[in-house]
TrEMBL record:
The keyword DNA-binding applies. This is HTH gntR-type domain-containing protein. The lineage of its organism: Bacteria, Bacillati, Actinomycetota, Actinomycetes, Mycobacteriales. The keyword Glycoprotein does not apply. It comes from Mycolicibacterium litorale. Keywords: DNA-binding, Pyridoxal phosphate, Transcription, Transcription regulation.
Length: 127
């Protein structure tokens, strides 16, 4: 038997306070990226619990005094990175990605064997 806990709804004013000076923390690049970085850091360090429901895009935009487009783009970036889960018509909930976002590592080069193969012209290994 599994028991589903109701998701905690985050107060928009609390989220705005927790974000603090998110605008100056990421002074280079688009505003939505700074907002997404701020929310991501709150999730990673545990100040926003996993499974918590974020405020609506409209409510957060109003509280932060930014356009709704900015919040929509930030939420989209967080969803794409695995930090938010979303269902149509429901608030987005915080999450941690299944695997950490790390740059892909290039494949290692394959070393060629010095041992003879059935088709090699030399029956003995090099000395």
């Amino acid at each position: 038997m599994t028991i589903e806990m109701p998701a905690r709804v985050l107060d928009v004013e609390r989220l705005a306070r927790e974000l603090g000076n998110w605008r100056t923390a990421s002074s280079s690049g688009p505003v939505y990226r700074g907002l997404a970085d701020g929310i991501r850091m709150l999730i990673v360090d545990g100040r926003l619990p996993v499974g918590a429901r974020l405020p609506s895009e409209r409510a957060l935009a109003e509280a932060l005094r930014v356009s709704r487009t900015t919040v929509t783009a930030a939420y989209t970036q967080l969803r794409d990175a695995g930090y938010l889960l979303a269902r149509r018509g429901a608030r987005s909930t915080t999450a941690l990605p299944a695997t950490p976002s790390a740059p892909p590592t290039p494949p290692l080069p394959v070393a060629r064997s010095t041992w003879p193969t059935p088709h090699s012209p030399h029956p003995h290994p090099p000395c």
